[in-house]
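User: Here's a chain of 190 residues. Predict its fold as tokens.
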Amino acid sequence: MEPIETERLLIRAFTMEDVENVHREVYASADVWGPKSRVEVKEGVLYAMLMSRHADDGAWAKRAVVLKDSDVFIGQVRLSPSYNWFYRWEEEPAPLYNKVEVELAFAFGKAYWGKSYAYEASRAMIHYAFAELKLPRLVGGTGADNLRSINLHRRLGYRIYEALPIPGHDWGAGVVAVLDNELQSENDTV
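Assistant: Prediction complete.
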């Protein structure tokens, strides 16, 4: 995956120089996505770098999001494929457990919240997922109390559903967010 530029952002592969910034902005605080140790973050960045260099895995590597005019790291985004055993909702027609789904995951430093950076980066990743990868939909989820994430998903066009409980896990109430590829349905009818 080549770097993606938006009006204010550059979405690019990670480098080892990003480790301290990633730790500080994303993983040092439970408010964002932490806590993780610097060693765990360094291993995660290295893994993302290795994935981004392989043609088969490049689309799925975690990406750094930096301000285009200053190269300041502000967050990360990732398209993450997985067997879906946890994003379940009652309205899903004929749920297919363990179907491969793709989640758009995002985490931005708290200092950058409320500036629409997550929205801008997510829109670019959605376009890439639908126009380039031709994915049929994206799914995601969060805790029912994470109103910032729920509101961002809604602003991005996702439908929000109450998540079904997962047997054997007590993760609390959650929501599932679903965004269909409208480009694909337009192409199917042509």
